[in-house]
Amino acid sequence: MTAAVARPDLHGLMAEYDTPEQVLAAAEAARKAGFQQMDAYTPHPVEGMDDALGLRPTGLGYAVLAAGIFGAVVGYFMQWYSAVVFYPLNIGGRPLYDWPTYTVITFEVTVLLAAFTAVLYMLARSGLPRPYHPVFNAPGFERASRDGYFLCLEAADPRFDPGATRTFLEGTGPVNVVEVVR
Amino acid sequence: MAVVTGAPRKVVETNRVIAPGQTSGGIDDVVNTPVLVGPLRTPTWWWLLFGVSLGLLGIYLIAIVRLVTVGVGIFGNNQPVSWAMPIINFVWWIGIGHAGTLISAALLLFRQPWRTSINRFAEAMTIFAVVCAGLYPILHLGRPWVFYWLMPYPNTFGLWPNFRSPLTWDMFAITAYATVSLLFWFVGLIPDLATLRDSAKSRFQKLIYGALALGWNGSARAWQRYSRAYLLLAAISFPLVLSVHSTIAMDFAVSQVPGWNNTIMPPYFVAGAVFAGFAMVLLLAIPLRRAFGFEHLITMRHLDNAAKLLLGTGLIVVYGYGVEIFYAWYSGVEFEVFMAYNRVLGSDHAWAFWALIACNLVAIQPLWFRRVRQTPWALFVISIFVSIGMWLERYVIIVVSLTKDFLPSSWGNYVPTFWDWALYAGSFGLFGTLFLIFLRLLPAIATTEMKEFAHHDAHHGSDAYEAIREAYYRGEVRA
């Protein structure tokens, strides 16, 4: 029996804490208790939360690196192709293949693609923009952007049980524990 | 006053990066309340400044209409001074922008916690200054409506831009800079917009800030990618900002004009940009902290540090003036020697050089004294001098070099026209209008980062160190 079957409208149980240290400790405890489907919602990034929740490192850095290299190649190729192959301009008899003058634009295209990739990857992998998310239904969740620190254990987790999970969360010293309905 | 009306406000001046005892809720309230109040509770000073800015913006638009209908002949530039006020103002504005990126990117990478209080409005300053700057070369083209010919795009002429031209580099550098600055600024704003969404009272505000916040909920997974993306954007922006003013310097350095063809130009331009930019940061921060009651968030430490950077970069710039003269002599080229002589002692424009020395060398010397660095009105006055000085620097480099270059028969003078001044005055209107709208609708301080920092400062900050530092400055402890 899983809770998700019993309560299809239940997203999970949300505990609110006063300090980042408390939510960090609670997340750590939940991971040690075997929970996997959970997330913390905090007004600012909490140091150590990735490890506490057992999150894998993000691949964002590799995506940005790849985009940067791609941008450098494209930027350089564009200039070489235009200046040497497609549209050669004789300027004071200087060589057409003139790499030092390509460096600035190569750099700018690199930067532009890397920056866009960083932002779009961050948004896309985080599922943003997303106007609706069940956690916004939790009473008092508006404090998650102000001074409340939340931990949500989700009903999709195989270990989730409405009664036992609530007892577990209440043992971690929260301000309160509420149900999150979809 | 936006936050408190009536009773006099208690001003907390401190030398710490943030006054002790700040709570997350307290920071949110003081920063977000002036943003979220209804239109009728907008402070009077805002309306006054907004009216002045709109007036200047009107002058700007009239000047542009005049420019488009009549042509670039309305400006005073002609041969031999073909680059004059439009390019001076372009370089001046874009230089101002550099401090914002430096604060948000370089100081983040160098782990300088004092950046947190000032990065948001400094980045806004950057973006609006780049807008003001970027319009100048376009307006200066003569046919501004075909500015996109500078970009490589598939066109029926089968033409490509000349990628060996510094002007094409410039176009790429400024476009990339404007775009990346905007991305960086917006990414920083996302969590703050979510805070505004959650504390907004009216449905309209909730809707607008909610849409802009993109559904941010502060999940740890999102924070993980967010923090990494923000760090990488900083790492990308730092070399970018150095490249932008270097590229602008190459517009000059790659040419053969005496006074322009000089290898020191890129680093010297970058230092000048940071110098001018920190002056503008101070010009904005000093009234801002008073108007919004941010004295406990933008503290004396910020003013002091910005003043130190002003002094440091100012001395680098003055070193650049020295090197230019030395280089003219050392090159042995008679045109260069004459340029240096004409710049410093010539009959027409020596006033500009000596006024520049007065503004950029003499006026910053009081900053060696801590008492001056901690006196807001003194910093404000010095920053005005620096802003004028940096404008004069570009005047000296651009105009004075061009008036007398090689052949005496082709020498000529330059006098700005009414429309030159109108477009310059009007650009302040554009900047002011954008900045005031920003102050009214978005939080001027990055609340999310401030909360993180305030928590860190309260729990892991070194109180002992700060206490010794305060005592030292009060003269109770000797180093």
Features of the shown structure:
heterodimer; A: 182 residues; alpha+beta; 4 strands; rod-shaped; B: 479 residues; mainly alpha; Formate dehydrogenase/DMSO reductase fold; 0% strand
SSE order of chain A, one letter for each helix or strand: HEHEHHHEHE
Instruction: Outline the biggest β-sheet of chain B.
Output: none
Number of strands of chain A: 4
Number of helical elements of chain A: 6
**What strand order characterises the main sheet of chain A?**
2-3-1-4
Q: Which band does the percent of strand residues of chain B land in?
A: under 5%
Return the CATH architecture of chain B: Up-down Bundle
Question: What proportion strand of chain A?
Answer: 5-15%
Largest interface, with counts of residues having CB < 8 Å to the other chain, equals: A-B, 61 and 62 residues
Topology overview:
The complex is a heterodimer of chains A (182) and B (479).
Chain A: H1 3-6, E1 10-17, H2 20-32, E2 38-41, H3 49-53, H4 60-86, H5 103-125, E3 149-154, H6 162-170, E4 176-181
Antiparallel strand pairs in A: 1-3, 1-4, 2-3
Helix pairs in contact in A: 4-5
Chain B: H1 24-36, H2 44-70, H3 85-109, H4 115-140, H5 166-199, H6 203-212, H7 220-253, H8 265-291, H9 300-331, H10 334-345, H11 350-362, H12 370-373, H13 376-403, H14 418-441, H15 447-460, H16 463-473
